[in-house]
Design brief:
37% of the residues lie in helices and 14% in strands. It is of the alpha/beta class. It has a 7-stranded mixed sheet with strand order 2-8-7-6-5-3-4, with helices on both faces. The chain has a 4-stranded antiparallel sheet with strand order 11-12-15-14. A two-stranded parallel ribbon has the order 1-13. Helix 2 runs antiparallel to helix 9 and helix 3 packs parallel to helix 9. The structure holds D-malate (MLT). Keywords: Aminotransferase, Pyridoxal phosphate, Transferase. Pathway: Amino-acid biosynthesis; L-lysine biosynthesis via DAP pathway; LL-2,6-diaminopimelate from (S)-tetrahydrodipicolinate (aminotransferase route): step 1/1.
Length: 410
């Protein structure tokens, strides 16, 4: 019999969102008439913008003609999309990022997990707590941790607590770490990082030879001009950071799939012999071997996100979800709930009612109001006593959810 990767057996139960889905399905099976509103997983609900659909239609037509048909594309992504991203997302903000440093992929969830292929097993890792579970689970799978304790914290990982007490801004690790995951705007707390905060991390990483894995999947929701959209807005970040971005939450691509990872050519790691090695070359090698690129049609759609019409339509989408966040936030505050996030981010992070743990509140909301959210403890031990509501839903559902919350908690 072949050996399995025993690290998988260290993983706690199921992945968070399927686990929620399982509980919701069980509830719906037992309560067939319940009109359940789902504000759990952050999955977009509004249609793809017209500019993007039009570009995809033309790309499909190109694929129907022998002169313009395309087979395998470049594993790193088509130049037209990498150039549009470099110009619009980075260079326009003063970030020195070239198209060759951008790798197109089918998702940031995959990339934040896959990136571990190119890093040594002995690296120490720090994560914010609460945290997007993918960062932790993929490190467990890769064997970088021991077992989980009774709070779900894995031996060997450094957890950086983010609670209301520190304004959801973690302190630097007490012991130097090799890899640090930062997510801003943050999933799940909806907090943001100022320039000063990011500078502190970049300086720390450069001083300690650490690499920051910066997840900016929600950058489009930043409404405050003083908040950086990219870690490369900070001097020195080219030498210590990889950035992940996605078309999922801004342009509605959760089902369509397109994302990007930036690996600057100036970023270095160390070989077992202590020699310096360019990380970009390793990621390029990894992608060329294990990935065959995102479909031409989808990349043309993503490119259209940067057209004038595309930008305008995406702005409308973002404003729509942010308005949802504000409706949820005001509704919760009107019944005395302590609310965080939801201003520069599509997630509302709230304190559960006195004495109620996160999963108890989950069951209470589902049972009494037929509402689904995400228990804070599902994102880590420091999320206990908190709860996340997603602003990704129709306006009618968000308004109905607020009415139900008011009746239940008012
Ligand atoms: C979430 O709800 O945290 C996100 O939808 C998960 C994801 O983007 O993979």
């Amino acid at each position: 019999m072949a050996n399995i990767n025993d690290n998988f057996l260290k993983l706690k139960a199921g992945y968070l969102f399927p686990e929620i889905g399982r509980r919701v399905n069980a509830f719906c099976d037992a309560n067939a008439d319940a009109n359940v509103i789902k504000l759990g997983i952050g999955d977009v609900t509004e249609p793809l913008p017209e500019a993007i659909r039009t570009a995809m239609h033309s790309a499909i037509d190109e694929m129907g003609q022998s002169q313009t048909f395309r087979g395998y594309g470049p594993e790193q992504g088509y130049a037209f999309l990498r150039e549009a991203i470099a110009t619009n997302d980075f260079q326009s903000r003063g970030c020195d990022i070239s198209p060759e440093e951008i790798f197109i992929s089918d998702g940031s969830k995959c990339d934040t997990g896959n990136i571990l292929d190119i890093f040594g097993p002995g690296n120490t890792v720090a994560v914010q707590d609460p945290v997007y579970p993918v960062y932790v689970d993929t490190n467990v799978m890769a064997g970088r941790t021991g077992e989980a304790d009774e709070n779900g914290r894995y031996e060997g990982l450094t957890y950086l607590p983010c609670t209301a007490d520190n304004d959801f801004t973690p302190s630097l690790p007490e012991q130097p770490v090799d890899m640090i995951y930062l997510c801003y705007p943050n999933n799940p707390t909806g907090s943001v990082a100022s320039k000063e905060t990011l500078k502190k991390w970049v300086d720390y990483a450069n001083e300690n030879g650490s690499i920051i894995l910066f997840d900016a999947a929600y950058e489009a929701f930043i409404t405050d001009d003083s908040i950086p959209h990219s870690i490369y807005e900070i001097d020195g970040a080219r030498n210590c950071a990889i950035e992940f971005r996605s078309f999922s939450k801004n342009a509605g691509f959760t089902g369509t799939r397109c994302a990007l990872t930036v690996v600057p050519k100036s970023l270095k790691g160390k070989t077992a012999n202590g020699d310096e090695q360019e990380i970009h070359a390793l990621w390029n090698r990894r992608q060329s071997t294990k990935f065959n690129g995102v479909s031409y049609i989808i990349q043309r759609g993503a490119e259209a996100a940067y057209s004038d019409a595309g930008k305008e339509q995406i702005k409308t989408l973002i404003n729509f979800y942010l308005e949802n966040a504000s409706i949820l936030s005001e509704g919760l505050q009107s019944v005395g709930i302590n609310v965080f996030g939801g201003v520069n981010a599509p997630y509302i992070w709230l304190k559960t009612p006195e004495g109620m743990k996160s999963w108890e509140f989950f069951d209470h909301l589902l049972d009494k109001a037929h509402l689904v959210g995400t228990p804070g403890s599902g994102f880590g031990a420091s999320g206990e006593g908190y709860f996340r509501l997603s602003a990704f839903n129709s306006r009618a559902n968000v308004e109905e959810a607020v009415q139900r919350l008011k009746s239940l908690m008012g």
